[in-house]
Amino acid sequence: MTIGPGVTGDRISQKIGYARSGGLGLSLEAQRIALAQAGCDPIFVEVADSGDRGQAYTAREQALDALRSGGSLFLTSLDRLGHSLVDIAALIERIFDIGAELRVLDDGLDTSNQDGARPTLMALARAQSALVSERAHDSLARRRDEGNALGPPRRLRDEHWPEIEALIAAEISVADIAQRFGVTRQTLWNFRRRMERAAANIASEPPADG
Asked: What is the pTM of this model?
């Protein structure tokens, strides 16, 4: 979906905006307004399924195809560009290969600025946090949907720990996590302590002799 004509004669606007739905950040409408206020035209809008990392990002591809050397791609936040830091890094490299720049409004990132290294690192850190939160949010939504038909698991097993650890890192409350897994908060705390002790014991073991 594209908002705005984007073409004046044969010239494509060099302030190109890209907005994507999903996650816990700004709504699509709020992103569109911020990009429009920054002078973007056209604005490519992606109604994405944040739980499907294999989907085709048609609007993002259209935005990148529209970029020309000397132009800029505008985002409200860096996590809107992709679903992982690896994905984001590859797309930034693609933008640079075009000879274009990247502007991220919320992070004050402008890659045309020679002093942009520090904001870039800060933006990547924020993007990582936002992506973890988005994955945790999606996981809770899937569990809620599955629970309606199947019911939540009643026991915590070792294979549940990576997901629980991600939810804790995303600052999801203990009560919410316990509810999603169908256990008490005390059970969840006991399970967490057991898994963390096991990880600490593994880390403290001396390396095996070669």
From this structure: 0.54
